[in-house]
Design goal:
single chain, alpha+beta, 7 strands, two-stranded antiparallel sheet, 2 domains, Nonspecific Lipid-transfer Protein, Chain A, 41% helix, 12 helices, 5-stranded mixed sheet, Arc Repressor Mutant, subunit A, 231 residues, 17% strand
C-alpha cells in the first residue's frame, strides 16, 4: 500500500496502517514472542492473516524472527523501530479511553482476552508464599465460566480447566464488571458495595488487590464526557 506522498505521516501509515498491524505491535511490546501467544491476544485474527502480517512486518523492519531450537516454529522479536512505537501505542490507548470508550459493545468483553491481561498484570512479589491460586467465576459466561490464574514463584499461567489446587481467592463477577474494574472505571469497593463483585478469601489478599493485580496503564484516564461535562 502506498499513498504516494512524501509526508512522514503517510509513509508511517504505509508501514503500520494495515488492519491488525498495530495490535500485533501491541502484543510484541507486551512480551508475546510466539505465534500461539499472539493468537491469545488476537483471537479473532485468522492464522493465515496473522502469518501474512508477521511476514509484512518483518519486511518492513518492525520485527525479527528466529527459529525455535529443535522445533519447526519461530519466535518473533520487536526491533528498535518497533520498540519506538511504544509511546504511539500508549497515546492511542489514552485517546481510546477518552474518546472511544462509549462505543464498546457487549461483544467487546471477551473473557479470554480479559484473563490474558489479568495474567500479565499479576505481581508475584506482592503475593503471599510461593504459590497462589486465583479463581474467577463469570456469571455471564456459558462456555467456560470458570477460570484460574496459578502463580508459582515468578511463573503466572491461566487455566480454563481446574488445576487441582486449593484456591486462595475467588472472584464472583461478570466479565464486563471485571473489565471495568481492571480499566479503572469502577473500584473494587464500589463493585462490592453495589453487589457486582463478591470476593472470597483472606484479608491479606482481598484488602490490597491493586498491589498484586495491577490495573491497566490507562486506569484513571477520564472519558470525554467527564472532561467536557464535569460533575
Amino acid at each position: 500500500m502506498s499513498y504516494n506522498q512524501f509526508c512522514p505521516i503517510a509513509k508511517a501509515m504505509e508501514v503500520v496502517g494495515e488492519k491488525w498491524t498495530l495490535l500485533i505491535v501491541r502484543e510484541l511490546l507486551m512480551g508475546a514472542s510466539r505465534f500461539s501467544e499472539m493468537q491469545r491476544g488476537l483471537p479473532t485474527l485468522s492464522p493465515a492473516l496473522l502469518t501474512k502480517r508477521l511476514n509484512d512486518m518483518e519486511q518492513s523492519g518492525l520485527l525479527a524472527r528466529k527459529r525455535i531450537s529443535g522445533q519447526r516454529g519461530y519466535e518473533y522479536f520487536p526491533t528498535n523501530a518497533c520498540k519506538e512505537l511504544m509511546p504511539v501505542i500508549e497515546a492511542i490507548g489514552g485517546w481510546g479511553m477518552q474518546w472511544a470508550r462509549e462505543q464498546m459493545t457487549e461483544s467487546d468483553f471477551d473473557p479470554g482476552l480479559l484473563m490474558l491481561y489479568l495474567e500479565r498484570s499479576i505481581n508475584p512479589d506482592k503475593l503471599i508464599g510461593n504459590e497462589t491460586v486465583i479463581r474467577f467465576d463469570f456469571s455471564d459466561v456459558l462456555d467456560h465460566p470458570h477460570w484460574w490464574i496459578v502463580v508459582d514463584g515468578q511463573k503466572v499461567s491461566v487455566c480454563v480447566t481446574d488445576p487441582g489446587k486449593e484456591v486462595d481467592i475467588y472472584f464472583n463477577v461478570c466479565v464486563r464488571v471485571m473489565c471495568e474494574i481492571w480499566m479503572g472505571e469502577l473500584s473494587y469497593k464500589r463493585a462490592i458495595n453495589d453487589g457486582k463483585l463478591k470476593l472470597i478469601g483472606p484479608k491479606a489478599l482481598t484488602k490490597n488487590i491493586n498491589d498484586w493485580l495491577a490495573p491497566s496503564v490507562f486506569a484513571g484516564d477520564l472519558p470525554s464526557s467527564a472532561i467536557l461535562n464535569p460533575a
